[in-house]
Amino acid sequence: MPSLPLILAPSILAGDHANLASTAQQVAELGLTWIHLDIMDGHFVPNLSFGPALLAALRRTGSTLFFDTHLMLSEPHRYIEAFAKAGANLISIHIEPTYDHRAALHKIRSLGCQNGLVLNPQTPASAIAPFIADVDLILVMTVQPGFGGQQFRHDVIPKLQQIAAWRQQRGLTFRLEVDGGIDLETASACRAAGADTFVAGTAFFRATDPRAFIKTLTKLP
Description:
The protein has a single domain (7-218), classed as Aldolase class I (TIM Barrel, Alpha-Beta Barrel), CATH 3.20.20.70. The radius of gyration is 16 Å and the shape is globular. The longest helix has 14 residues, at 157-170. The protein is an alpha/beta fold. The chain has helices at 20-29, 52-60, 80-86, 101-110, 157-170, 184-192, 202-205, 210-218; strands spanning 7-10, 34-40, 66-72, 90-94, 114-119, 137-141, 175-179, 197-200. It is built from eight helices and eight strands, in the order E-H-E-H-E-H-E-H-E-E-H-E-H-E-H-H. Helix 2 (52-60) packs parallel to helix 3.
């Protein structure tokens, strides 16, 4: 199976909260096509962030970025339609809460979006194994979700390797994304384990030379 082109999806959570439209514009002007939107409900994770109104507002500014929308919610299935209508291109939902995961993944696609499944650092790869043929993306959290700026957890590397091996063995084409503590060093380790899509927040927005950061990360072997 040919390898997918690498994608960097800066996390808007690490941008300028007083002007998130300018953050999205900055990402686009640097030549990137994806932006990652962390949606947190204060229940599934101990933090609050944004709702569908933010996506809709960014679309009204004319943003054509690919909205990589990560629902860190206790009941993500209840909000799929709202985020799809607001302008999400891909909606990722967590495996950990109890709901009908397969029905939710199908609903995302039925609304014209790509779908993704997410697992936390302590969740084994086996939890998502039954669904890997039905997703466009699998997101492996490399920190416990909730807050930016955390240290990368190297103990997730074997999980990435396992999921990448399943993808190769079954000839599947889903993207394998990582999120949490991603900088050039940890991105390289994740790339070696099979990742092809990288969410970077603090490291990207605080980079001395963002263009060099982009070039280095997206050209990883």
